[in-house]
Design a protein that fits this description.
The structure is a homodimer of 387-residue chains. Chain A has 387 residues and is of the alpha+beta class. Helix content of chain A is 34%, strand content 23%. Chain A contains 11 helices and 15 strands. Chain A has helices at residues 22-33, 53-71, 92-105, 112-117, 193-205, 237-257, 276-288, 290-298, 304-311, 342-349, 376-383, and strands at 2-3, 9-14, 40-47, 78-85, 127-133, 142-144, 161-169, 182-187, 222-227, 265-273, 323-326, 329-333, 336-337, 353-359, 365-372. Chains A and B meet through helix 2, helix 8, helix 9, strand 13 and helix 11 of A and helix 2, helix 8, helix 9, strand 13 and helix 11 of B.
Chain lengths: 387, 387
Amino acid sequence: MLRMDDGAVAAAMFTTNQFAAAPVHISRDHLRNSCGYASVLIVNSGCANAATGPHGYADAQTIGDYVAQECGCAPDAVLMNSTGIIGKRLPMTNIQKVIAPLAQQCVPGSAEPFARAIMTTDTRLKMSTRLVASGVTSGAGTTRTTQATANTTQNPAHSKQIRVTGVAKGAGMIHPNMATMIAVIATDAALEPHELNAMLRVAVEQSFHRISIDGDTSTNDSVFAFASAQRGAAADHGELQRAFCEVARELARMIVCDGEGFTRAFEVRVRGAASATDALDVAKTVATSMLVRCAITGGDPNWGRMLAAAGRSGTRLNPERVCLRVGELVLFHNGQPADIRKDIAQAEFCKPNVIVEFDLGQGDHDDFFISSGLTQEYVKLNSEYST
Amino acid sequence: MLRMDDGAVAAAMFTTNQFAAAPVHISRDHLRNSCGYASVLIVNSGCANAATGPHGYADAQTIGDYVAQECGCAPDAVLMNSTGIIGKRLPMTNIQKVIAPLAQQCVPGSAEPFARAIMTTDTRLKMSTRLVASGVTSGAGTTRTTQATANTTQNPAHSKQIRVTGVAKGAGMIHPNMATMIAVIATDAALEPHELNAMLRVAVEQSFHRISIDGDTSTNDSVFAFASAQRGAAADHGELQRAFCEVARELARMIVCDGEGFTRAFEVRVRGAASATDALDVAKTVATSMLVRCAITGGDPNWGRMLAAAGRSGTRLNPERVCLRVGELVLFHNGQPADIRKDIAQAEFCKPNVIVEFDLGQGDHDDFFISSGLTQEYVKLNSEYST
């Protein structure tokens, strides 16, 4: 359970999966009914409460009502999510038993216990914090904190600084639209609901919509945002947006680097595309190609697979103008391979974070996508998940 | 090398990958120049001759010219393909050395040595034959041969029967459009170039465009068809088309069942879709979902992943009307899970060929897609491919 101050502003983005889980439907309804205010988020793992029909919907509603009662807030002020196996009913007795103690223990704005509680196959806690100077005239910029802190909104030591803290869980079914996990970004800045909503959308587009672990957009994944309106301070919206983006990108990268069976991350950067869509399509197709991802795992400099993936992306390309670079090495340009020794190419493919760069030579649009090597361990984990 | 009678009719479908290999470009040009006639197909493995620029193009042209000279045919009568690593030049000396002996040994219409020669990571020979009664008034239908035979066109024992024989190689980079491997279907029926071309397209759409091993459409994959015009006999085109489709579907299934790291095939059948596109999109998205494929490998009855994949396919669904059946069991209907014991569901997921059926309850369009479980062995093989 994550509690915010009463009357906190809230926003969310939900999975686009048409079998969206009951808690997704209910959270969406609550946010609409409250016009963008919520103060409690409750999450369970082990059971997704998706594809569970009217019973599943009633279960989620019961939990929401019970949380509202124990927290002393309106039912619409409760947001919720579930993660786990699809098609199973929630163990209601177990869940109801813990809600009252949770509501008592849970300190508003305390993020770390929540971040720990939502871990499933995650092996590491995922938190990220940025500080922004308060006051709309501030030019101080975004400051990176040196260590994750436990509070999202209480900020006594830096009374002139606004805090943006995010937490997330991975680690399977990671793919855009929406669809990438559960994440929460909270700030003590004063924002209107529409402002928080817009800020969340920009941040998600540059982060959780640019990562993939397995190409499967799940039925439950959601990103929530909160702004503690009551004690909130004004901030430069540009700086605050930048902090939101940085937190979201750091969380997104943490999710990739803690993906099931993770060994090595890689980033595909595309520039020189004729349109924004082309840039994203090429980046995403290369980053999610199974054969590319296998080569990344093996540190195998089989760059031809990257060209082949770009060539099947659906984007109109001119092979003569495409330049492919991996790390420091140009591997393909002017329609032909560069003369690179295999052991030298291999060294670039064995780095912990491989950077793949395409210049399509057709325009000035760019984009990126982050993924990881596909491993035997991933397949093993996911072959035995429910049994 | 596969030789047909001089003046044989030919057709082909090629990869849609924009980094299509040099032999793909040259074969396409030859077929256009000859208006649909060709009598030799030459294939090499180990090197795809893709992304090799003007040098690679010149290499392929040199091979084509040399084959034409040794076989005593026009350069345009030579079709070609290459399979293997992308971005490497062909070992020209080695290839040129073997062309003259090949041209001497190669008996027109002899398919089995060709089928053996094109095997790469394939573990089994892939051949399929159907016989069709000759004469346009025949109603005898398609007869399945009990064993693969070595001749595609010579047919002394069944002088009144027309033969359709196909051969194929897999086994990685298998995905539609075009893009699935090298396959050849040959017949001794008399067909015009446009008739053979149309017949090939119908057969490919129902076979090689409905299988996926890894979602990667390669730079080289091609399906060729030949009809030995000179000795050709007339056949009922409906029967002949059916034979083409059966041969192509059998080869496609052989490719899936010999995919890299294969353990278990599964077929996703969709009916009740509002449009043909919807039916295919749902079938393909479910069949190619990595999480579904992992569950198939493990015999894990995690059917929620199938619903989740359908839900992200981009097709507009009404979850209340979707029915999901695996084998004999209805697992989800009326918007909720059926009450099925896990061990009973597991038994269906452990069958050698799992049948997944979706009824979308929205219209009368149907389609299917065939894939296989994703295995650790696949990842291992493809992590070390070029090194």
